[in-house]
Design brief:
about 260 residues, alpha/beta, 5-stranded parallel beta sheet, 9 helices, about 40% helix
Length: about 260
């Protein structure tokens, strides 16, 4: 497959690139909601360019959107792909507009709304590295109601690989675990593994949101075999800390996440 981009997700997808020759993966867009108008304009231009190229070459365009609170944080939102959404940030509206542009273009496509992917080389301003920096500096700000769905990069690539193998098109699919974890539990585990306790400034705000994975599990039944249970976030954190040499001595061995593999 053709991978457009050189960032965190793109580099982890390269090992499976030979398995999906008809796919063009667009993994080069804006990834945070704090962006300038010029950032949004550049991604819009890249999407337009990729649509034209994919139509000309009859390729399947795979677009990475977001399943974050920016998309699913609206009142009463159930985090489902086939229900109307009211994004709560400019970033969410931007991603939704790009989804609609792709859907209206006539190109064969698959739109993937992603949860919080964690792994080596994740940008320092993402959730887990940012929390670690705040904990180590003893200056931690938490939003009491916030929840996050974490998925390890290795498991994420496995899910993407299996999903692309199904050659699904003209669909929007959430790629996440379905376990929306309170931010307090994420911070508690980080502090335990780092051996550091930080002063916490708790703000009685924050958006609690859930990401439905019913559609993902229906399309790729093997995902049900992966160990995405209530404690999975601890494995995600431990793997990240081990990969970045931050796991405190004496921490328990890491658990595998299950036997799911891409069908031959």
């Amino acid at each position: 497959m053709e991978i457009i981009g050189n960032g965190f997700l793109a580099r982890h997808l390269r090992p499976i690139s030979d398995a999906h020759p008809e796919m063009t993966i667009l993994a080069a867009g804006v990834s945070l909601w704090k962006n300038s108008d010029s950032d949004y304009e550049r991604e819009t231009a890249l999407v337009e360019e990729t649509i034209v190229k994919s139509l000309r070459q009859d390729r399947i365009l795979v677009f990475f959107s977001t399943a974050s609170m920016s998309m699913y944080g609206g009142p009463g939102c159930r985090g489902r792909e086939d229900e109307p959404v009211e994004p709560v940030t400019p970033y969410g509206w931007h991603k939704l507009a790009l989804e609609r542009r792709i859907q209206d273009s006539g190109v064969r496509h698959l739109i993937l709304r992603l949860g919080y992917v964690v792994g080596p080389h994740v940008p320092a301003n993402r959730l887990i590295p940012s929390l670690i920096e705040q904990i180590r500096s003893d200056n931690l700000t938490m939003y009491r109601s916030a929840r996050r769905d974490l998925i390890d990069i290795t498991d994420w690539v496995r899910v993407i690989d299996m999903l692309l193998a199904e050659r699904i098109t003209q669909e929007v699919v959430n790629v996440a675990t379905g376990e929306s974890v309170p931010i307090k539990l994420i911070v508690d585990h980080l502090e335990s593994r780092l051996g550091v306790t930080a002063r916490r400034q708790i703000i009685d705000e924050g958006t609690s949101h859930h990401i439905s994975v019913e559609k993902l599990r229906r399309l790729v039944p093997a995902v049900k075999e992966m160990d995405f249970g209530p404690d999975y976030h601890r494995t995600v954190i431990d793997r990240y800390l081990e990969a970045t040499s931050q796991l405190r001595d004496g921490a328990p061995e890491l658990r595998p996440t299950g036997p799911a593999r891409r069908p031959a």
